[in-house]
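User: Second chain of the day. Same drill as before.
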Amino acid sequence: MANLNSTDTGEQADFRQKVRAWLEVNTEPKKAKSPWAVNFHTNDDDARREFENGRAMLKRLFDAGLTAFTYPKEYGGQGGPAWMASIFREEASQYEVSTGFVSATIAMLGPTLMRHANAEQKAHYLPRLLSGEYGFCQLFSEPGAGSDLAGLGCRAVRDGDEFVVNGQKVWNSAAQWCNWGMLLARTDPDVPKHQGITFLLVDMSTPGIEARPLVQATGAAHFNEVFLTDVRIPVANVVGEINGGWGPARTVLSNESAFIGSGNQGSLHAKILLLARQFGKDSDLVIRQEIARHYTRERLLGIMGERILAAVRRRETPPIDPSILKLYVAQNKVLSGNLVTAMAGPASMAGDGEQARWMQAELVGRYGISIGGGTNEVQKNNLAERALGLPREPRIDQTVPWKDVPK
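Assistant: Same format as last time:
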């Protein structure tokens, strides 16, 4: 198959041909669907089916050598250059090859294990993570520790070669389906809050773990609250150092921001143009200016996201703080929601058809995206302190033992 891409080197052309040949035989072309289909489920059965289908697709790609391109071969990866991931993404965009939720977990936990795990942990967990055998959920936030994550109170007490964990987590995506979790627990309450946290990997089938789904406004239950009662976790499951879990946690959160901001939701520009023409707003100068602004921000977000992900694949420090992407996504959602509402007027909120539901989801979606993965306020603090080097906000709990901080 000649001339697959005029800019490819010989090696890249061969790889592109391999990818395309596998996709043609092993997957289906993307099905045509309405531009107004919402990207969330309204019942648990469909949501679980998508989760399991994503894991199954990841396993097929892993077995074919078409994932984990930049991870070392000894950990189940391909040990290849970053362009392999780009070429695969280009070719796969025309096929039904979504790996769903597990992709987000790999984006967060994979680089964390590469940076903080010991050799034995990498050899065990990375191949199982990258293949989808282990589906991880994030057990970080708590009812009293969301934006102030370091204030968490889930307690882990050492008992010989195990930790005994008691506490509650919340907003845990897909926890009812995942077979493993990454957990933050308080192991030393006598030191300031950031210094007494440990990062643990836990088998979700361990006695004492209960995931309770939280029903959302859509009717589905993607989020959960997770209760841990006398849960025993081997000390060998600690990633990094005991009481040094804030470092791995920050790596997870940084990569989470990069993933959320990497443009996985796709472009809205074509839909916004359709709405402008449908409601006769394509000649309105103010609307045209807002459309241009939204399109420009979408393009900038895509460029920044690719630069950050390329650095992550090369195991380098991203040239742009990932908090910028997370903030950009949240701000873009506000802009797009306001824009579609301004164009459609009452029809955007009063209707119950497919298009109206999409516009309503676009407007209401601003709230979830501005909270999940770290609130806008947290992201701004991160930027101020990490990227700009500004002094931290004055806080009394930075040097006070966690147990002495008012709860």
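The mean pLDDT is 92.

User: Great, on to the next one.
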